[in-house]
Amino acid sequence: MTAFIQVDGAEMVFNTRKGRFHALRDIHLQVAQGEFITLIGHSGCGKSTLLNLIAGLTRPTAGALICDGREIAAPGPERAVVFQNHSLLPWLTCQENVHLGVERVFGARETKAQLTARSQAALELVGMSHAAGKRPHEISGGMKQRVGIARALAMEPKVLLMDEPFGALDALTRAKLQDELLKIVARTRSTVVMVTHDVDEAVLLSDRIVMMTNGPAATIGEILQVDLARPRDRVALAEDADYVHCRKQVLDFLYTRHGQTARTAA
Ligand SMILES: Nc1ncnc2c1ncn2[C@@H]1O[C@H](COP(=O)(O)OP(=O)(O)OP(=O)(O)O)[C@@H](O)[C@H]1O
């Protein structure tokens, strides 16, 4: 596999008021271009910390991270992040929110009409054209997440980094957005690294599931290859033997071999 994202021996130690906190140790991970990776593990194990390192929002205390042949030293438009809570600017319309990202990436070399066309196309991709002129408080939580995804996709990032993007949504909206994300990623061929707590979400979406041990000093415990054919249909998969097997492997890892102790659950 040619690595598009490479994490070489990354470690993260935070300086806190109570002293040093060793969050991550010895993380080695290679992600191929176009791959869909999920990070799963118990609460507090360091999933967001690892995602933030790939985003360039934090620097590792040891080790190196590389994306497309360059060291990750800061956030960059080639690595767009979607957070659990949409992070849209409340005083701007949906289209203006998307436009901000578009302008940042393409503003110097494209006309206003081209930029507008990009924002409109991104909203259309996530089925939100009808709400282009609305402000975030006028639309539902699921719609806000779609606009957040549109904003990320409109920047044509090489990598889409998602931190529990559907975590705050009800089960039906979540399922709908997962299905849409699968279609969008099939079309854009984006490389995706996504944090999730949801075993079914991980199996449905991933090419590989990165399972993390509990912290402190968490690391990658195992990586599960998910060889289910695409496009994937959640209803058909529910009874698919390979799907059920993958699901069981993740459940075994999380609850039998790495059950959360009282200390980490606190
Ligand atoms: N800036 C920080 N300073 C100090 N400690 C931190 C900082 N960021 C994260 N941590 C600690 O590092 C550990 C990993 O946190 P992180 O948010 O990455 O976990 P997570 O697996 O994403 O958790 P969750 O699933 O609950 O979102 C936790 O113990 C957390 O308290």
From TrEMBL:
<dbReference type="InterPro" id="IPR017871">
    <property type="entry name" value="ABC_transporter-like_CS"/>
</dbReference>
<keyword id="KW-1003">Cell membrane</keyword>
<dbReference type="Pfam" id="PF00005">
    <property type="entry name" value="ABC_tran"/>
</dbReference>
<feature type="domain" description="ABC transporter">
    <location>
        <begin position="5"/>
        <end position="239"/>
    </location>
</feature>
<dbReference type="InterPro" id="IPR003439">
    <property type="entry name" value="ABC_transporter-like_ATP-bd"/>
</dbReference>
<dbReference type="InterPro" id="IPR050166">
    <property type="entry name" value="ABC_transporter_ATP-bind"/>
</dbReference>
<keyword id="KW-0813">Transport</keyword>
<dbReference type="GO" id="GO:0005524">
    <property type="term" value="F:ATP binding"/>
</dbReference>
<keyword id="KW-0067">ATP-binding</keyword>
<dbReference type="InterPro" id="IPR005890">
    <property type="entry name" value="NO3_transporter_ATP-bd-like"/>
</dbReference>
<protein>
    <submittedName>
        <fullName>ABC transporter ATP-binding protein</fullName>
    </submittedName>
</protein>
<dbReference type="InterPro" id="IPR027417">
    <property type="entry name" value="P-loop_NTPase"/>
</dbReference>
<keyword id="KW-0472">Membrane</keyword>
<dbReference type="InterPro" id="IPR003593">
    <property type="entry name" value="AAA+_ATPase"/>
</dbReference>
<keyword id="KW-0547">Nucleotide-binding</keyword>
<comment type="similarity">
    <text>Belongs to the ABC transporter superfamily.</text>
</comment>
